[in-house]
């Protein structure tokens, strides 16, 4: 059998009438094959989809130089993905919601300081107030989750200490090749300029760090491929919706038994192409077959939809972010027992972040001010746990195990809360 020229010509084609010696009827042929997509960043995908506008940026800003590496300086393995991490937080609701929830949970109940040395305890409390730790460090932990790392420079001026937040998009380190030890932090405050800091000048908070690595790992690293896949699919959703409302058709004009000439073919084709949206097609038998291109996959011959595919990827994203569906404001069908287990898993992750912050305070931050033997204790995450702690401390006060002042510290009450308090008459001072 001799095939029509359409199968031999490598060009865009929508219809042809067979000539002598070829199959005597016409085709309108469509292909679902898509050209290979070049790799785009999250911001690039959103700009291409006309969802955000291209930014006019100062050439000295971080985004312009984030991928610029200084020779001899070591950067995190996923340094080139840092922009995507930040854009994912800015533009992907699930990601932003998950990180905001974790940030809030870390700090919602606060912490208390503990030490047997009253002077050291007082100095630690004053030092944290001086550097505004409740805002400076708290804000930085969000970006420690986004990038895996957060940095502060210690500045001492006029006998006062403060922490200056540094951008992780601009930070690298120098490593001694012989010993493998970190010798300097290398910072790029603006394009073309680098500043070298000694390790004792920098407070470095890192999450999910590999034991052999000087850098932490972003919690978004495991989610980035899924985030990009979802954005790519959602970019196509408007086209898919239009296709579902006005589906792509395969139309056969004429047949072997009912051939058509070129004039008839063009007349029928132009009538179909120029019809109004939703208008029916009428013919006298010349059109022998009309069918929708996308009609396979679903039960009963229905077209396959994208809801199931998107659901699969979103479940992967939720698993990677580690935040239950119910906390992200959907997942109403989640069983109560399952939701409780998911929340317990999230709380375990939050406590891991709190341990890293605790180590940073005790092993680095306090040493700046010469503060020793002061411990940072996080309070319980949930109000129910706090109530249980309160009841336990009340029992321990009654049996002489702890003092009311210690209990107030653990529960987060200020010292003034103890003024004018009374105790039961049967309680007497306990001397160990």
Structure in words:
- By secondary structure, this protein is of the alpha+beta class.
- It has 3 domains: 5-35 and 227-315, no CATH class; 42-224, no CATH class; 382-432, no CATH class.
- The chain contains 12 helices and 11 strands.
- The chain has helices at 42-48, 62-65, 82-91, 93-107, 118-130, 133-147, 224-245, 262-273, 307-321, 336-368, 383-398, 404-411; strands at residues 26-27, 111-114, 149-157, 160-166, 171-175, 182-190, 193-197, 202-206, 249-253, 287-292, 375-378.
- It has a 3-stranded antiparallel beta sheet with strand order 1-9-10, covered by helices on one side. A 3-stranded antiparallel beta sheet has the order 4-3-8. The chain has a 3-stranded antiparallel beta sheet with strand order 5-6-7, with no helix packed on it.
- A hairpin with a 2-residue loop joins strand 3 (149-157) and strand 4 (160-166).
- The N and C termini lie far apart (106 Å).
- 20% of the residues are buried.
- Residues 1-25, 27-35 and 57-67 have low confidence and may be disordered.
In short:
By secondary structure, this protein is an alpha+beta fold.
């Amino acid at each position: 059998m001799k095939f029509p020229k359409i199968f031999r010509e490598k060009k865009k084609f929508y219809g042809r009438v067979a000539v002598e010696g070829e199959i005597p009827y016409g085709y309108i042929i469509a292909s679902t094959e898509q050209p290979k997509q070049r790799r785009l960043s999250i911001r690039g995908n959103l700009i291409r989809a006309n969802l955000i506008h291209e930014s006019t940026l100062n050439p000295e800003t971080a985004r312009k130089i984030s991928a610029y590496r200084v020779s001899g300086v070591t950067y995190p393995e996923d340094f080139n993905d840092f922009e995507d991490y930040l854009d994912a937080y800015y533009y992907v609701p699930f990601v932003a919601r998950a990180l905001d929830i974790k940030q809030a949970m870390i700090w919602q109940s606060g912490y208390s300081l503990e030490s047997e040395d009253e002077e050291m305890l007082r100095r630690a409390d004053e030092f944290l107030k001086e550097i505004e730790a409740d805002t400076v460090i708290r804000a930085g932990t969000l970006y420690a989750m986004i990038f895996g790392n957060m940095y502060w420079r210690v500045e001492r001026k006029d006998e006062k200490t403060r922490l200056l937040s540094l951008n992780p998009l601009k930070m690298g380190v120098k490593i001694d090749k012989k010993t493998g030890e970190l010798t300097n932090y290398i910072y790029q405050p603006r394009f073309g300029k680098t500043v070298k800091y000694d390790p004792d000048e920098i407070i470095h908070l890192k999450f999910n760090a590999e034991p052999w690595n000087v850098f932490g790992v972003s919690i978004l690293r495991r989610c980035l491929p899924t985030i990009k896949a979802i954005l790519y699919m959602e970019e196509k959703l408007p086209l898919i919706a239009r296709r579902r409302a006005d589906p792509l058709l395969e139309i056969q004009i004429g047949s072997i038994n009912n051939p058509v000439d070129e004039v008839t073919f063009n007349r029928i084709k132009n009538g179909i192409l120029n019809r109004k949206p939703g208008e029916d097609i009428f013919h006298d038998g010349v059109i022998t077959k009309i069918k929708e291109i996308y009609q396979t996959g679903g039960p009963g011959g229905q077209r396959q939809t994208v809801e199931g595919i998107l659901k699969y990827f979103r479940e992967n994203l939720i698993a990677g972010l580690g935040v239950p569906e119910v906390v992200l404001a959907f997942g109403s069908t989640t069983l109560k027992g399952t939701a409780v287990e998911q929340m317990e898993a999230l709380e375990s992750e939050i406590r891991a972040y709190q341990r890293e912050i605790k180590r940073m305070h005790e092993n680095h931050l306090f040493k700046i001010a010469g503060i020793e033997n002061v411990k940072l204790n996080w309070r319980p995450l949930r109000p129910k746990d706090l109530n249980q702690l309160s009841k336990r401390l009340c029992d321990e006060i009654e049996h002489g195990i702890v003092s009311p002042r210690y209990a107030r510290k653990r529960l987060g009450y200020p010292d003034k809360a103890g003024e004018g308090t009374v105790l039961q008459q049967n309680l007497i001072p306990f001397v160990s």
